[in-house]
Amino acid sequence: MEIDHCSFPEDILYDPDNFVWAKIENDSLVRVGINSILSSLAGRLSKVNLKGVNMDIMRGRSLGTIESGKYFGVVRSPVTGSIVEINEAVVSNPRLVNDSPYTNGWISLIKNDKLNPDFKYLNSIENCRDMIRSQIKILHIRCFVAFPDHEMYEIGVECSSTLAKLDDLLKQVEIGDVIHLVSDDVTADLEMMRWSEQRSQPLLEIRQENNLFHILVRKSS
Question: Taking Cα atoms as reference points, which of 50, 15, 47, 51 lies closest to residue 34?
């Protein structure tokens, strides 16, 4: 399900109070991770620290921490149990949590022989949709088709100057990186499409919100 451009798969359960999800693998194993709201709120992650295997964990307690240039916080477990596996991939490559929070960016696998007491805290996306929509609005969350690696806020700047800055930034970033450009120039969408054709750099998304354009560019070469 998509809520205000943010993705929420329908085959998992959610603990919206803690911005985490739970996928029941079998009668006693639960895979957990963060949802799109926490991913967006934290920004591009630079560090993930996870508690180790065989550690007992209570519902609501920390499974580890996530960190970015603007955020430091804990990932709270949606269930009680014992950690049987952690996702080593996100420790070595934290951006997986941002790019694939519901798949490759999962956090921990927890063994829980008595799931029923925790079910009252878990909801299908259908049942917690209104709460999540409210959280997105209150926290000013924006989700895009790809998670930005870099931000450019060019408010009150002519498009020609903005494009010159964008060209300079592209020289500094890595191939595959995504730039989120915000502009209030009324011609920004048209100018960006023209620029994309000239530079052979793909535009992933153009979204207008009131008088602002939100534009995603991926460096391809």
Answer: 15
- Virtual torsion, Cα 190, 194, 196, 199, nearest 10 deg: -150
pLDDT digit string, tens, across residues 174-203 = 999 999 999 999 999 999 999 999 999 999
**Distance from C-alpha of 184 to C-alpha of 212, rounded to nearest angstrom:** 5
Global confidence as pTM: 0.91
User: pLDDT tens-digit profile of 25-43?
Assistant: 987 899 999 999 999 999 9
Q: Are 214 and 179 in contact (CB under 8 A)?
A: no
How many C-beta neighbours within 10 Å does residue 115 have? 17
> Could you tell me which CATH number the domain at 150-218 has?
3.30.110.40
Q: Where are the alpha helices (DSSP H) in the chain?
A: 36-42, 88-92, 95-99, 116-119, 125-138, 159-172, 188-199
And the tokens for 79?
């269930």
The class (CATH top level) of 2-138 is mainly beta
**Where along the chain do its domains lie?**
2-138, 150-218
